[in-house]
Specification:
587 residues; alpha/beta; Rossmann fold; nine-stranded mixed beta sheet; seven-stranded parallel beta sheet; 22 helices; 16 strands
């Protein structure tokens, strides 16, 4: 074993497609081979543990893998975990919401259904906290790509917001119950709140004692994101133990170079990969294939006839941002085009070679925006709270009314997860003039699929929230906030309806001709077909000329584009050269 990682909890983090799952499996297997009891958990909604370990035996989560009796694996199911956490507490929580606010039982159930169970990162945080207390051996966490890993690290703050809202309701409910009973009263939901607080503190302790392994590649776009990730780890005072570079690089302190080899498969392949870490000969990068332009007109015609909203989706690291930026630049030559990144760890500025933020940047006819969803959402939250404060101050309300003020202010903290991202996307779509194409570079697979479910949930939440304001007789006095929520509801409905309309929306899948990537692409395609979201094309990136011979089929098979092997094009000129070299395959 080339390195020693002694932390009981290890989180393997990095940009999608760098080899996080491979590294996590190899680290876990090496510890198991030393006789340690190891629990390997993947918190990425698009799990690849079974693909990398080649668990053809189909053993369930929690059972040892065939190659080591000391290693158990878990593909974490956030939805199932949320249900197991909330269902036993549902009755007492609904009673608390009903008694601690002016909401009736229907509203209370609605708020709990829409707000609490859905956030993957919070559920993953609670599961890590649970494992840290119950599992006495080593815990290795294969995380989601960078942006959502950062959300995992902030999960305590999100969960703390939920708990704070419930505590505000408990405070009012307890005050009323105590007044009637003539003495202190303990509410059934208070035990739930205390248990959740203990879980929250358990995650904070687990994080403080954990070690982080960063996986990267020696490529400019990947390294730029890695530097931002390392800066975030330093800012949070978290322990960075090792960086693994899974592409040619010179060994440096704290970095281990790994040759550009085929992705290891199965336990023996992982063992060999880990034992050779740092010692493997550094192979040259694959040579870039000439991007001759025999089909440049075909590419232009495809873009010209594509729907106005193109959602680029796929596994992390397959080149979604590069492909989306290339299409946007070519599209801008014939029509107004907006390029939007919804990935919390977006790389638009690295690919385009210019700063890109929440304020639109104009480049070669493209309006580029890196969505800061949290900032946009927090602005509306702050405006709402300021309005509540003004109203209670204006009417001189105090005493018992202050408890209602606390509840009313806290309701916003129970907004369903992902609503901030949808708010930002819908705002940008709404602002686009007729005839404008919107090209969206989305988060990796698992979180992209979660995002598609948010418009329906968000509509339910906005309606429930407006009902709450009416119950508090605050809808008229909070006129500006109510108007903005109604406006957002309208945009959500428009976005939801557009998703299944092939005249308005098309998903563009980006993949590599690699078995692990292809398995995830197939699952993504199946999910889109089931959701009636039209697939406009499949781009197989960094593919050689023989791709059509061995490409596994999808059902139904979308139009397939081969993007040639390249050396990570960056900047408008290189991106345009790249996209005009794409080839349409006849299968």
């Amino acid at each position: 074993m080339p390195v020693s990682l002694n932390d009981r909890i290890l989180l393997v983090v990095g940009k999608g497609g760098t080899g996080k799952t491979t590294a996590a499996c190899a680290i876990a297997l090496a510890a198991a081979d030393r006789g340690e009891a190891v629990h390997l958990i993947s918190t990425d909604p698009a799990h690849s543990l079974a693909d990398v370990l080649e668990k053809a035996d189909g053993r369930r989560d929690g059972a040892p893998v065939r190659c080591s009796p000391n290693l158990t694996t878990e593909a974490f199911d956030a939805r199932a975990y949320a249900q197991s956490l909330f269902e036993p507490a549902r009755q007492s929580l609904a009673m608390l919401v009903e008694q601690g606010s002016w909401l009736d039982s229907r509203d209370a159930e609605s708020i709990l259904d829409l707000s609490l169970p859905g956030v993957d990162e919070v559920m993953a945080a609670l599961r890590i906290a649970e494992l840290s207390e119950k599992h006495t051996g080593r815990i290795v966490v294969d995380t989601a790509p960078t942006g959502h890993t950062l959300r995992l690290l902030d999960a305590a703050a999100v969960f703390g917001g939920w708990i704070g809202t419930l505590q505000a309701m408990a405070e009012k409910s307890r005050a009323v119950a105590t007044a009637f009973a003539g003495g202190p009263v303990r509410l059934p939901a208070e035990a739930v709140i205390e248990e959740w607080q203990a879980r929250l503190h358990g995650f904070e302790r687990a994080l403080a004692g954990a070690g982080f392994v960063v996986v990267t590649r020696d490529e400019p776009v990947v390294e730029a994101e890695t530097e931002r990730l390392l800066a975030e780890l330093r800012r949070r005072a978290l322990a960075h133990r090792l960086t693994i570079v899974t592409a040619p690089a010179h060994s440096q302190d704290g970095r281990v170079a790994v040759a550009w080899l085929d992705r290891p498969r199965g336990c023996d392949g992982l063992r060999n990969w880990w034992s050779a870490l740092g010692d493997a000969p550094v192979a040259p990068r694959p040579a870039a294939v000439s991007t001759a332009r025999p089909q440049s007109q075909a590419v232009r015609d495809w873009i010209a006839n594509a729907p106005p909203l193109l959602l680029f989706a796929g596994k992390g690291g397959v080149g979604k941002t590069t492909c989306a930026a290339s299409v946007a630049l070519l599209s801008a030559q014939s029509s107004p085009t907006r390029l939007v990144s919804t990935d919390p760890a977006g790389s638009l500025q690295d690919v385009l070679g210019v700063p890109v933020g929440d304020t639109p940047t104009e480049l070669h006819g493209v309006t580029a925006v890196q969505v800061d969803a949290a900032a946009d959402f927090n602005r509306l939250r702050a405006e709402y709270r300021e309005a509540v404060d003004r109203i209670f101050e204006q009417f001189g309300l105090g005493g018992a009314a202050a408890l209602d003020q606390h509840v009313l202010e806290s309701l916003w903290d129970m907004a369903p997860p992902g609503l901030d991202e949808i708010m930002a996307i819908s705002r940008l779509m709404d602002a686009a003039a007729p005839g404008t194409r919107v090209v969206a570079d989305t988060a990796p697979t698992g979180h992209f699929l979660s995002l598609l479910a948010v418009p329906g949930i968000g509509l339910g939440w906005t309606h429930a929230f407006l009902r709450m304001l009416l119950k508090y007789r605050a809808a008229t006095v909070l006129e500006d906030a109510s108007r903005k929520i109604l406006e957002f509801s309208r945009r959500l409905r428009t976005f939801r309806d557009a998703l299944t309309d092939p005249a308005r929306t098309g998903a563009v899948l980006v993949a590599l001709n690699d078995s692990v990537v292809w398995n995830e692409t197939r699952r993504l395609h199946e999910s889109l077909v089931l959701a009636n979201i039209p697939v406009a094309a499949l781009i197989v990136n960094r593919a050689d000329a023989g791709l059509a011979r061995d490409l596994p089929p999808l059902n139904p098979m979308p139009r397939v584009i081969r993007a040639p092997i390249h050396a990570m094009p960056a900047g408008p000129d290189r991106l345009l050269e790249f996209v005009t070299g794409w080839e349409f395959l006849e299968l």
